[in-house]
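target protein:
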Amino acid sequence: MEILEQFGIDLGYVVMGMAGVIFIMFIMLVITMAKNSSLRKKYNIFMAGENGKNLEKAILDKFAAIDTLENNVEDIYRKIQGINGQLTTAYQKIGIVKYDAFKEIGGKLSFVLVLLTEDDNGFILNSMHSTKDGCYTYAKEVVGGEAFVILSEEEQQALEEAKKNISLKKMVPQKKR
């Protein structure tokens, strides 16, 4: 007491300060106990009906399931690669142009259809419709994006349209590792 009086500190202020600190610590203790209780409840729910061996088995089962899924993904990727290789020879680029073959006699019932593979190999199918004479159909071979016979304006337009199309192989996602 004499020490406090030497510095001019009133004992009442010291007691009130200590009471404030104790009150704050009490509030912190209550908060900590509430958090601990909540954590304990979550732990009890997690461990309900499980012992260490059962929990270990559950975790190992999950890892086995993940391994199985990884193997399935690898199988699917290999199958996609096989399909991707087959797409090279499948007709996947298409161009079509409708037109009036005989200028206002047959209507826009004539058409040019172009089917190309990824390597721009395929054919041109030209179907010309006439109201008087019926329908004429012609097929022309395309190799490397070029036809070796003279093409009409509509056939050339349909061929260019087909060559602009993106092949399916370019749409397949590549494996990332």
